[in-house]
Design a protein that fits this description.
Length: 563
């Protein structure tokens, strides 16, 4: 295939069998707006607490603080989000075009039916939110994470942003089914933003109902946590609740509308800002607000950039370019696709796995277009040069990661070709991405040399059917000999620490979803447990077939943007 935007062909591998999931995470940072009038009417009720002092004001420190056993004194704050930039002056919650602000105030809409907590992340609760796991068993917690009530100090906000969908400017998008509850500062001094997804209509809901359904919420919860334990930056999922409220969806946009159940995920991230947060301001010429928002983002989330520096926006852009290249290379290293065909919403395969690096370039170019409105001629030229370095940054990191996956030490000419050769064979044989690299981590060099592939290494056996596989093996073994002070056992040990045995594949998520639809959440819990240790062998995972070839029923499995 012919690479585009200057990316080497070895990075563009469209037909490998990879985790077929959507992950609704964000890349960039920050949040704000000016004071809100008291006495707002809301559908979600307020939990009145006796204190609104911060953890630091109460004398908390990392070593002394204990996990909260209830929500009685646990508070959020929206002040930092609302003290710098204007909030939408319209307080009513109806769909509309919003101008000259960053947020609109909108309260979550509680479910009408009973709500059930079906999954919770112990690590998020305890390590990020300072809450003992036992808190998740309380009514107050379920009311909070389902949107029925909000805690003291919280003024729920919905974010205004724009963006491109399938390469076309879509104008105002925004949080159409999400509510930002506020910021929590934990005992380590970290600030985390809490957001409900699927919690009701907002001014940005367009033609939607503001709800999320169980199947998409299960995927969101599991995939967010799976990516974290793979060591890849992502938003986190704290909890998942499901209701009996009826939500009607046409999953594949073919006129087949079916009844599903509404669900809500509580997500946490350092920030929910994105490139579209800046694009919408640039599009409507709100340049003072664009400048203020950028300065806030830099001040809050880019400590290495001096907010007083005239070139601060160029410095900010340089970091975003570098981190985007790093992130997408990490995605590729585990076979993750932010949007993977067969996604029936992506007819043109714009977001297929082999095109992710190019989409990263597209997104960065749109960010630069917004920034250019605030840059002088010299700064524009410098920023353009920074963007031109993106393919090199990406390919360099991509190569580093895949060399580690193959157990290669040091720098040798031809390493990139060796990686590209293997990916070519994997593409042609439609090999399983995860298990190919994992089984290369487990097979001995002598077994490879003899081309004696044991039956349990089923992914390698699939590739071995290709006529060029012996040639690749010869090149690989020759390259391994150049590893200094290395042994075959050390190589295998090293490779098993970077090549996961389990990732959240589409069929695994679908199996969990199908059971969850019948109120059996056992596989959700099993996957949550397994994916916390993706590099370790688990007997329960082996019994479930998570490292085996996909079941026959999964062959025609499809997803969509609503999945």
């Amino acid at each position: 295939m012919t690479p585009r935007s200057g990316f080497p062909s070895c990075c563009l591998t469209p037909r490998l069998q990879t985790p077929q999931l959507l992950l609704c995470c964000v890349t960039c940072h920050a949040v704000l707006c000016s004071l809100v009038q008291p006495g707002l009417e809301a559908r979600a009720r307020l939990v009145h607490l006796p204190s609104n002092r911060s953890n630091q004001e109460q004398g908390y420190c990392e070593t002394e603080a204990r996990l909260a056993s209830s929500l009685d004194f646990w508070t959020l704050s929206s002040e930092n989000l609302m003290a710098v930039l204007p909030v939408d002056p319209v307080k009513e919650n109806y769909v509309r075009k919003v101008k000259n602000c960053i947020f609109s105030i909108a309260f979550p809409t509680p479910f009408k039916s009973r709500v059930r907590l079906v999954a919770v992340s112990k690590e998020v609760l305890e390590d990020i939110l300072d809450l003992d796991l036992s808190v998740s068993e309380t009514d107050a917690f379920i009311q909070l994470v389902s949107g029925e009530k909000i805690v003291f100090g919280s003024i729920p906000l919905t974010h205004r942003y724009g963006g491109h969908q399938f390469g076309i400017w879509a104008d105002q998008l925004g949080d159409g089914r999400a509510h930002l509850l506020g910021i929590y500062r934990n005992r380590q001094g970290e600030k985390w933003e809490l957001q409900l997804k699927g919690s009701g209509k907002t001014p940005y809901s367009r033609n939607g109902d503001g709800r999320a359904v169980l199947r998409s919420s299960v995927r969101e919860f599991l995939c967010s946590e799976a990516m974290h334990y793979l060591g890849i930056p992502t938003s986190r999922a704290a909890s998942l609740v499901v209701s009996d409220d009826e939500v009607w969806r046409d999953q594949f946009y073919n006129g087949n509308i079916v009844k599903e159940r509404g669900a809500v995920v509580l997500r946490v991230a350092k920030s929910w800002f994105r490139i579209g947060s800046l694009e919408i301001l640039a599009h409507y010429g709100e340049l003072d607000l664009l400048r203020s928002l950028l300065d806030f983002i830099i001040q809050e989330h880019f400590p290495s950039v001096n907010v007083q520096e005239p070139n601060r926006y160029v410095d900010f852009f340089s970091i975003v370019v570098s981190e985007t290249a790093q992130l997408i290379a990490l995605w590729m290293s585990v076979g993750f696709a932010h949007d993977f065909v067969p996604n029936t919403s992506d007819d043109e395969r714009r977001y297929k796995i082999g095109n992710q690096a190019n989409i990263g370039m597209f997104n960065l170019n749109k960010l630069l277009q917004a920034l250019n409105l605030l840059l002088d001629r010299g700064q524009k030229h410098l920023a353009a040069q920074i963007l031109e370095e993106y393919p090199i940054l990406y390919y360099t990191r991509f190569t580093e990661l895949f060399k580690a996956k193959l157990g290669l030490l040091g720098e040798r000419k031809g390493d990139g070709d060796l990686i590209a050769f293997l990916l070519h064979l994997m593409e042609k044989t439609e090999a399983d991405f995860t298990m190919t690299f994992r089984q290369l981590s487990e097979i001995t060099q002598s077994q490879l040399q003899e081309l004696n592939i044991p039956q349990q290494f089923w992914a390698l056996k699939m590739i071995s059917k290709h006529q060029l596989f012996p040639a690749w093996v010869s090149q690989y073994l020759l390259r391994l000999k150049s590893n200094i002070n290395d042994s075959d056992s050390e190589r295998r040990k090293r490779m098993t620490t970077v090549n996961p045995k389990y990732v959240l594949k589409n069929w695994m998520a679908e199996s969990a979803v199908q059971k969850a639809e019948r109120n059996d959440f056992s596989e959700v819990h099993l996957l949550q447990q397994i994916l916390q240790h993706p590099f370790q062998k688990h007997s329960a995972a082996e019994k479930a077939g998570y490292s085996s070839p996909p079941p026959a029923w999964a062959e025609g499995l499809r997803v969509s943007c609503s999945s």
